[in-house]
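Final report, Chapter 2: Outcomes

The project's central promise was a pipeline that accepts a single protein chain and returns its three-dimensional structure in a standardized token representation, suitable for archiving and comparison. That pipeline is now operational. To close this chapter, we reproduce one record exactly as it appears in the project archive, with the input sequence first and the structure output second.
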Amino acid sequence: MQYAGTNYLAILLAAAASFLFGAVWYGTLAKPWMAAVGKTEAEIKGSGQTPVLYLVAIIAQLIMAWVLAGLIGHLGPGRVTLRNGLISGAFAWLGFVVTTLAVNHGFQGAKRALTVIDSGHWLGVLLIQGAIIGAMGT
């Protein structure tokens, strides 16, 4: 098996686009998400951690896009396509993300709505990243 290579511009764009998606997703679902978490907006803003958490989120998006690009690149030359990017993103979500969230949220006693909202976000992130990485190729 040959490695197709890595497109670092695609990784940066995928990370940025998926971060913006998260802003829209959680901006739209802020009230249901806060209800599922059991916190108020004042509690979240009053923690003083928000700027640090945004930085962590950006770094996490970059790492996620880099790893997904590596997974897609391992399909081989000529196989880094929009379709394969979407499929790889969906498989990564199903195999790693939603399963992890379901287990963690289950043991934490979190509301099912939190798992649905968070897993929907990560599905969108991985599909966006896979689409951009796949479409831009190597």
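Archive annotation: Helices lie at 8-28, 30-37, 41-46, 50-73, 82-108, 112-136.
This record, like all others produced under the grant, will remain available to the consortium after the project formally closes.
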